[in-house]
Design a protein that fits this description.
Distance between the termini of chain A: 44 Å
Oligomer: homodimer
Function (chains A, B): Bifunctional serine/threonine kinase and phosphorylase involved in the regulation of the phosphoenolpyruvate synthase (PEPS) by catalyzing its phosphorylation/dephosphorylation.
Helix content of chain A: 40-55%
Largest sheet of chain A: 4 strands, parallel
Largest interface: A-B, 75 and 75 residues
Organism (chains A, B): Rhodoferax lacus
Number of helices of chain A: 10
CATH topology of the largest domain in chain A: Rossmann fold
Strand content of chain A: 5-15%
EC number (chains A, B): 2.7.11.33, 2.7.4.28
Enzyme class (chains A, B): transferase
Strand order of the largest sheet of chain A: 2-1-3-4
InterPro entries (chains A, B): Kinase-pyrophosphorylase (IPR005177), PSRP (IPR026530)
Radius of gyration of chain A: 24 Å
Number of domains of chain A: 2
Chain lengths: 273, 273
């Protein structure tokens, strides 16, 4: 396989260029060397970037692939004119047709949060992250009222990373509520959850996978034993069914897939769309 | 302003379509109604999507804007043929030129993690999230050794959301280590940190902003008082300078900007690139 270097170049963090570029590259069976070039916000830095890109092309014997989300036209022009790589201009490609469609000019604003500290959206996202951290594993039940989403499920079914993702990506206040053996003995939804049924979402998991995950945490414990995992999962699933709680098996799903499914089912009020 | 509906349509979660589409839309001063259509993975669901898109166009009196990252060609064809919206095909636009450039066909794989549970990359990301949660606020010092990055700074300087973001986005094991008044009295870097200087990154913040943030947490406390915040920040900055720790002011920065800057400075060994 020929050697290729891929660059992600942006006047901001480059995270959009990188996320999107990697999604495109995942469509190809190639192993590329990746280089992140964030904060290229002066013509000088653009010249430095050019040197680095063109040098990589000479070393590889193949022109580099360059994903860019540059919005400053002067900087983009330096790259377009002097870069020996294959340029994939992710903003320009779509912004120009949209200018025509909308009949307005784009504002060439760098980054999602131009001044992060003053953005209400940004502050509510930080608040959501702090909320979700404070409400991990059923801490502070009295605040369930304020939650946008409450995840229920047995220990290690995926509640914690999912709630943090919901907070970080969507600014949602997500709480966790673990179902524990005492709940199964009572055979009833924990009373604290009953008033919040519309916000509940259940996470379940294959007992075999759960046992594997718990083994890493507490090897050879009753907690991790396959028999016990089978019992807990089966009791938890029965409880969710009886209470009419929507649920999803996380066994083969990524955090992103779980979070997207939850949003489709729960439609939190606070979410912009 | 004319009414516009924007759709994000994908055979996967649609998170790439949404992240990228919103970055493009941020270039325009418009208020659009946004609709997420994830998991459109059958021709049937494509027809449902078409009905929804075309209906929105009739209601608005303006054709909708449709960002798609569909990789299944049969489903994409239904949308292309029958959708009355303006279609922005984010994958097709770049995948076809790349097929020519690389001389190979794309694999039309949906999503970043085709089977999340089996992906080593995915598992190490979950492990990193759990690690960063367990090592928030200086818990378990003995594991600092295993950290990829250790963030230091006064309480509420932005360490926690930044470390979670580094774990979630880059799979890095990020620990936090708060600098507290006792450290300032000693006028020395906490001894636990000394062996790990190459992994340390300092976060600082304007005392006025810090006082505001702390007021929300503990109103009218000494902890939140502007005088105390001034003292802590000044002592923490002096300590970082003396110890030669790279640092950044988080006052007007987003989590993404802070995380990207840290990666540029620290170059963690474990990071793929």
């Amino acid at each position: 396989m020929a050697k290729r270097t891929v660059f992600f170049i942006s006047d901001g963090t480059g995270i959009t260029a990188e996320t999107f570029g990697n999604a495109i590259l995942a469509q190809f069976e190639i192993k590329a060397h990746r280089v992140r070039l964030p904060f290229v916000d002066t013509v000088d830095k653009a010249h430095q970037a050019i040197r680095q890109i063109n040098h990589a092309g000479e070393m590889d014997g193949n022109r580099p692939i360059v994903f860019t989300t540059l919005v400053n036209m002067d900087i983009l022009k330096v790259i377009t004119d002097q870069c020996s790589g294959m340029l994939l201009d992710m903003f320009g490609t779509f912004v120009h047709p949209l200018e025509n469609e909308l009949g307005i000019k784009s504002n060439h604003r760098v980054g999602r949060f131009s001044d992060a500290s003053k953005s209400a959206e940004y502050n509510s996202r930080i608040e959501a992250i702090n909320f979700s951290l404070a409400h991990d594993d059923g801490q502070m039940n009295r605040d369930l009222e304020q939650s946008d989403v409450i995840l229920v499920g047995v220990s290690r079914s995926g509640k914690t990373p999912t709630s943090l993702y919901l907070a970080m990506q969507y600014g949602l206040k997500a709480s966790n509520y673990p179902l524990i053996p005492e709940d199964f003995d009572r055979r009833q939804l924990p009373p604290a959850l009953v008033p919040h049924k519309s916000k509940l979402f259940g996470l379940t998991i294959q007992p075999e996978r759960l046992s594997e995950i718990r083994q890493e945490r507490r090897p050879n414990s009753r907690y991790a034993a396959l028999e016990n995992c089978r019992m807990e999962v089966s009791e938890a699933e029965a409880m969710m069914r009886r209470a009419g709680i929507r649920s999803l098996s996380t066994t083969t799903k990524s955090i992103e897939e779980i979070a997207t499914t939850i949003l489709q089912e729960i439609h939190p009020d606070r979410l912009a769309y």
